[in-house]
Hints:
- With 247 residues, the chain is α+β, with helices and mostly antiparallel strands.
- The protein has 2 domains: 7-50 and 172-238, no CATH class; 51-169, no CATH class.
- 43% of the residues lie in helices and 14% in strands.
- The protein is built from 8 helices and 6 strands.
- It is elongated and about 95 Å long.
Amino acid sequence: xxxTASRQQFIDYCLRRLGYPVIDINVDPEQISDRVDDALLxxxxxHYDGTEHVYFKIKVTAADIAxxxxxxxxxxxxxxxxxxxxxxxxxxxxxxxxxxxxxxxxYTFTTLDMAPYVMAMRQIExxxxxxxxxxxxxxxxxxxxxxVDMMWSVDVSVDDxxxxxxxxxxxxxxxxxxxxxxxIKKYATALIKRQWGENITKxxxxxxxxxxxxxxxxxxxxxxxxxxxxxxxxxxxxxxxxSDMVG
Length: 247
C-alpha cells in the first residue's frame, strides 16, 4: 500500500486508484480538492480517529462575563460538559468543607479506617449536587459560543479558569497519518469517481473515433454504490457510541 503523508500525495493516490495516468480522469483539480474536503468532513464527523477527546482550559475575561458566553476554537466540534464551577465543596479556601474535615481528622487517618470519611464526603457531594447542581450548557459548533446558564456576575470572576470536556478535530496537516487512513483513502476515491461520472454523463452515448462510447452513468452508479456501502461501514464499524454531546 502506498504511504501518503500530504494532501497532494493523497490526491495522486486517489487518481491512480481510478486508473490515472493510463486513463484520463475527467475531473477538474478544484473539483478533486472539494471532494477531498468532503471526505475529511465526513471523517471528522463520524470516524473515531477523526477527533480527539480533550480538556480545554478557558481563562475568564471581562468580555466573557459581559457577553455571558465563552468563545471556543473552531476545531472544537462538541462539548460534553464543563467541570464544576467552584462551590463551597470544591473551592480552594481554608473554609472549604473538605479542607476542614481533613484538618480535623488527619491525625486519625493513620490509625483508623477511612471508610467513614469517604462516606461522609459522598453525602456532602450529594447535598451539593442537590443544592447547586451542574450548570446547564448550550453549544453550537457553527457559532463557536458556549453558553453557561448561571449568574455570571456571581459564579465566576475575571481570571478564573473553566475546564471544558469536549472533542476537537485533528488537522491532517499536523497529524499527517490521517492521509494514510485506509477508509478515507477509499472514500475520497469513491467521491472523485462519482464526480467523474457526473461530469461525463452529459456525453452519454456519444461515439468517439474507433467506436468508443462514453458510459458515465455506469461510473456514476458504481461510485454511488461504493459510497453508500462505505458510509454504512463508517456508522456501524468506525463511529463512537452515541453520547450526550452538545454541539
